[in-house]
């Protein structure tokens, strides 16, 4: 309605119409750009325009890394002396239990689904009670889908399974050879204890107490020619992780290292030859040096993420001090490689459909 038409109306009504007209004009000015885009997008033969990558996000914004699967090396101390060890006893520090729990709760809040406790030897601290309490906390209170441990197995007793077995999804036991002399040569032995006999005992306890059994082996110069087909199939692990021996500056190579692992190193061709020899083992999961280096989220004893991209372990600040989102930016984590190496799998024993 134009101004001339308004003059014939009562004064109050004319004033009301002016106010409404002003409001509609202002609304149109706001909506006009959007209506033009929409009209152009809906013209016959035209597809709606695609958003450019990053549209709708602030310039330079990063998508936070989610710590889906975390490896917490809460101790560096160990009772074995494996010559190729790449997480050596450079400190004796262990976080107080409640501080460790606080950090784990922060990781869960940030999206953690799986926690793996490792070392060093995790059963050294309080004869397994420390790791047992962490396992129980993660399953019972944090309700994580998967809780696992990597151990050399030498200090695990059946009473531990009776107390904590229900809270543990996977126990991974390290065994590099089924020849006891080779294990001793590598450094995976302690006094008169037989590593292979203990491995078989642990396999039975895992069966008895409904814990999924996993086997870890580091392939090196002293076992690369071994045929392990028969023994691995007899143990029937849910997974057999086969690692190529890896050098890490400051851990097992270099001036400040506690190990000299150069004599254990094998070529990529030798590693592939070992894998080919065991191709009939369905549970085998191979990890070459390339796959290992950047595909793990590793927390050290201070709850710092360790970045291995430059061939040595460079720590972030502690999760406990700066939070998960900030600390994880310095982890060097390669999520694509994590998925490529099979890092995401059925990792909760409730979903494995195993016969106990």
TrEMBL record:
<dbReference type="GO" id="GO:0046872">
    <property type="term" value="F:metal ion binding"/>
</dbReference>
<dbReference type="InterPro" id="IPR051196">
    <property type="entry name" value="RSAD2/Viperin_antiviral"/>
</dbReference>
<dbReference type="InterPro" id="IPR058240">
    <property type="entry name" value="rSAM_sf"/>
</dbReference>
<keyword id="KW-0051">Antiviral defense</keyword>
<dbReference type="InterPro" id="IPR006638">
    <property type="entry name" value="Elp3/MiaA/NifB-like_rSAM"/>
</dbReference>
<keyword id="KW-0399">Innate immunity</keyword>
<dbReference type="GO" id="GO:0005739">
    <property type="term" value="C:mitochondrion"/>
</dbReference>
<dbReference type="GO" id="GO:0051607">
    <property type="term" value="P:defense response to virus"/>
</dbReference>
<keyword id="KW-0472">Membrane</keyword>
<dbReference type="GO" id="GO:0050778">
    <property type="term" value="P:positive regulation of immune response"/>
</dbReference>
<dbReference type="GO" id="GO:0003824">
    <property type="term" value="F:catalytic activity"/>
</dbReference>
<dbReference type="GO" id="GO:0005789">
    <property type="term" value="C:endoplasmic reticulum membrane"/>
</dbReference>
<feature type="domain" description="Radical SAM core">
    <location>
        <begin position="64"/>
        <end position="284"/>
    </location>
</feature>
<dbReference type="GO" id="GO:0051539">
    <property type="term" value="F:4 iron, 4 sulfur cluster binding"/>
</dbReference>
<keyword id="KW-0004">4Fe-4S</keyword>
<keyword id="KW-0391">Immunity</keyword>
<dbReference type="InterPro" id="IPR013785">
    <property type="entry name" value="Aldolase_TIM"/>
</dbReference>
<keyword id="KW-0256">Endoplasmic reticulum</keyword>
<dbReference type="GO" id="GO:0045087">
    <property type="term" value="P:innate immune response"/>
</dbReference>
<dbReference type="InterPro" id="IPR007197">
    <property type="entry name" value="rSAM"/>
</dbReference>
<dbReference type="InterPro" id="IPR026372">
    <property type="entry name" value="RSAD2"/>
</dbReference>
<dbReference type="GO" id="GO:0005811">
    <property type="term" value="C:lipid droplet"/>
</dbReference>
<keyword id="KW-0411">Iron-sulfur</keyword>
<keyword id="KW-0408">Iron</keyword>
<keyword id="KW-0949">S-adenosyl-L-methionine</keyword>
<keyword id="KW-0479">Metal-binding</keyword>
<comment type="similarity">
    <text>Belongs to the radical SAM superfamily. RSAD2 family.</text>
</comment>
<protein>
    <recommendedName>
        <fullName>S-adenosylmethionine-dependent nucleotide dehydratase RSAD2</fullName>
    </recommendedName>
</protein>
<dbReference type="Pfam" id="PF04055">
    <property type="entry name" value="Radical_SAM"/>
</dbReference>
